Amino acid sequence: MSKRKGLLLDQQGTVSAALHDLELPEWEFLTLTTLDAARRALSGKVPLVGLVVFDSARDWPVRELEALIARHPIEWIAILGRGLMRDTQLAPLVARNFHDFHTLPLDRERLLITLGHAHGKALITRAASGTAQECGRFGMTGNSPRMLELYRQIEKIVTVDAPVLIGGESGSGKELVARAIHSHSERARGPFIAMNCGAIPPNLIQSELFGHERGAFSGAHQRKIGNIEAANDGVLFLDEIGDLPLDLQANLLRFLQERTIVRVGSTERVRVNVRVIAATHVDLNRAVAEGRFREDLYYRLNVVHLKVPALRERPGDIPPLADGIFAEHSHQKAPQVKGFSSEALRAMQEYAWPGNVRELTNRIQQAMIMSENRLITVADLGLPIGEGAADARTLDEARATVEKEIIVSNLRKYRNNVSEVARQLGVSRVTLYRMIDRLNIVL
Ligand SMILES: Nc1ncnc2c1ncn2[C@@H]1O[C@H](COP(=O)(O)OP(=O)(O)OP(=O)(O)O)[C@@H](O)[C@H]1O
């Protein structure tokens, strides 16, 4: 029988030895003495149950422990030393974060029941959050080699606190990656503030970033906290960093060097603890070479670099992405729509997706609402007709694809008037009805 695996965070090693003596044949525990070691262990396969030993109330740094607990789908059990249950600092921590607790000394029967419950609860939780997780990680969908590489990089990045620069085409998921880094890092409990540098008029960016005092300029009726300050203890996500005007690049650089800001209209320096994650869809190297982006700022931001792959570089991820989008928006679809035709799935994997996952989402959402078919067609998605046919494996498949696209688009054009469509296509009504049936078209 394979053993149930658990994690044991035990600084002194006291419980580790006691567990060994208790002989729990079903269980096997990996004992770790630091949170760093736990983080490293949990970046691989995550066990269902974790035990944290508190020999005293201040054994573990609270924020780091809470961040670790929040990050992993594990049921945690606190093992409390004598008298600690009534500790006013520890009790709320345990109540907030733990599935259950067990007081020392260990009681074999009671511990086995507690472990059994926690194990069962973790299994149910994982089953309920289910399939989406299986074909992706960090809230992202995709198991292609490019995505697996990205997940591996994210795993490393969440354990450090350095600035990150995320490259990738528009709509490819850069913000999603930034959010994943935030929610899986030590800063998970701090804010995530996103700001699109390209969408804010240049004269407002300074105050958006740094804030202003009341009366700092006409229209500044009250003090405003800027985005850097609002992100204190968390993450500031600067999208389209390449659009930041040069003078503000200098100010941002100063903040990154000194970790302090001065609100517009103030002289007071305010210390701020923020991790900056920047994103760009343009080649910043080129912008540096052309003098549009400061080189020193580029190196400051680019301590860690991530590249989010374009959707066309990972066509194998399109079917699970499409299914996920379909499930997510299924409350907003035409009632007869049940899924995607195989031609549509093939066409989606052939298409170049200049707008990446955002474009995929928009096209599928639109097709789910507007389609008059049981299965969404290539035409419903507005993808180039014929791409599916070009990819067909046999001539029959190619013919069927083209026939279907033409019939569907004519039915739409003539509002399902079969006689008119038959006339336009030069076939009898009976033939057209047979084709509609054979090609699985819903009228
Ligand atoms: N791997 C993925 N799995 C699931 N959804 C994704 C994935 N990648 C992107 N998305 C979704 O696609 C949409 C666009 O993603 P996001 O906003 O992160 O892209 P972006 O690269 O930051 O875009 P822009 O360059 O326009 O700022 C979002 O709705 C996001 O949830």
Automatic annotation (TrEMBL):
Annotated GO MF terms: ATP binding; sequence-specific DNA binding
Domain of life (superkingdom): Bacteria
Sequence ranges assigned to domain Sigma-54 factor interaction in this UniProt record: 140-369
GO biological process, any: regulation of DNA-templated transcription
Record's signal peptide: none
InterPro entries the record matches: AAA+_ATPase, AAA_lid_NorR, Homeodomain-like_sf, HTH_Fis, P-loop_NTPase, Sigma_54_int, Sigma_54_int_dom_ATP-bd_1, Sigma_54_int_dom_CS
Keywords: ATP-binding, Nucleotide-binding, Transcription, Transcription regulation
Name of one Pfam family that matches: HTH_8
PANTHER family membership: TRANSCRIPTIONAL REGULATOR-RELATED, TRANSCRIPTIONAL REGULATORY PROTEIN
Protein's UniProt name: Sigma-54-dependent Fis family transcriptional regulator
Organism of this sequence: Pseudothauera rhizosphaerae
High-level lineage: Bacteria, Pseudomonadati, Pseudomonadota, Betaproteobacteria, Rhodocyclales
